Fold this protein.
Amino acid sequence: MDIEQEKHDILKRLMDNEMAIAGIYQIYAQRYQKNQEFWTNIANEEIQHARLIEKLSKRKDLSISKMKDRFIEERFIYHCPRFQNSHNGFQ
């Protein structure tokens, strides 16, 4: 895989992650009507994060080595299951 493809793949995973989290928050907004505004607002923040990452993906000066240092795959493997399990306490 060439460097540009690897950069694209990393940023795509980051965008997908932000959108997945936004989706969870949107479900919370529907389920927890009392706090709907809160969940909707943070869902919108996650969508904005995805848009910012998309803008980053278009930059030509973004190096893959800087991205790897900042966003190593192990962080996502660690945090995603942790996040998915953290919502179990909400009623």
Q: What stands out?
A: The two ends are 45 Å apart (CA to CA). Confidence is low (pLDDT under 50) at residues 87-91. The helical segments are 3-31, 36-57, 64-70, 73-86. The first helix runs from residue 3 to 31.
